[in-house]
Write a structure and sequence with these properties.
single chain, alpha+beta, 8-stranded mixed beta sheet, 4-stranded antiparallel beta sheet, 12 strands
Amino acid sequence: MAAMAELISNSVQEMATNGQEPPVKYFSKGNDGGVLDAPVPLIEIPVVDLGLLTSPSTSAQELEKLKLALSSWGCFQVINHGMTSSFLDKIREVSKQFFAFPMEEKQKYSREADSIEGYGNDMILSDHQTVDWTDRLYLTISPEDQRKIKFWPENPKDFRETLHEYTVKLQETNDFLLRAMARSLNLEESCFLNQYGEQPLVTARFNFYPPCPRPDRILGVKPHADASAVTFLLQDKEVEGLQFLKDNEWFRVPIIPHALLVNVGDQVEIMSNGIFKSPVHRVVTNTERERNTLAVFCIPESDNEIKPADQLISETRPSLYKKVKDYVSIYFQYYQQGKRPIEAVKI
């Protein structure tokens, strides 16, 4: 129980509520460039309309917009995704309700010391590690036989059903977008989907960022790119926090309440032979307002070989990446050392 006790005492929500001074392990090591809460410009991220992508008269133009978004920023906001604003609000509400419960209720779902699944925060893998100012609930969604239902909250009452419905819809959207990404590069449309596989890993991470007394020195999530193929983020409706890095400058992500923010992860960067960029991003904190988000990661089957599509390799553009299996296992080794895992698979 010692590891469990350490985990619970590290709840940032409790520290924020009690007005406790954050321990030094939460402070950024200074390699993140300047004062963390300094003003940064807003990104003009393209908005991609799934309705326009499916219509013969508008799909070519929308595919070009998708390609431009992923080759420049690595992300876009998606609308007309088939989910109503009221349903997205329901997802946000069950998340808020869970984190608002007393600690003893949330403790029922505490992660074990050697696993990321369940309620808690960062796994501490080294004494030098910077810890994120966030509590989270991390769940495996798919394959369904790998779900650990003991970590799925029974309260709020509709939590499990709502999350299941949401992620079923997202997996359909993910498959559609992987086909669209391939078409935008003039590839056979199942090219990326074939690498993604029939039994992908889909995980969900509910993030709670309480007000932070030192937003100038402490991050909600340290800079990283994702290990996924595709990541979907349901943003807080009111409170910003997500920032993307481009050309060594940070940019704020605007909030579009009825949209989903989509970014590609390292594995699509590999499949596209570097045409699509897996963006480095971080989450900043603020002193006044809490923030709730939900990230869903769509990750290729670990046994599948991920490699640049053959049609994207030529004499003028050779293969930039090695073939790789189970990229996620490489990812965590490098990420906690503050290194970009994709560097390990570059040729």
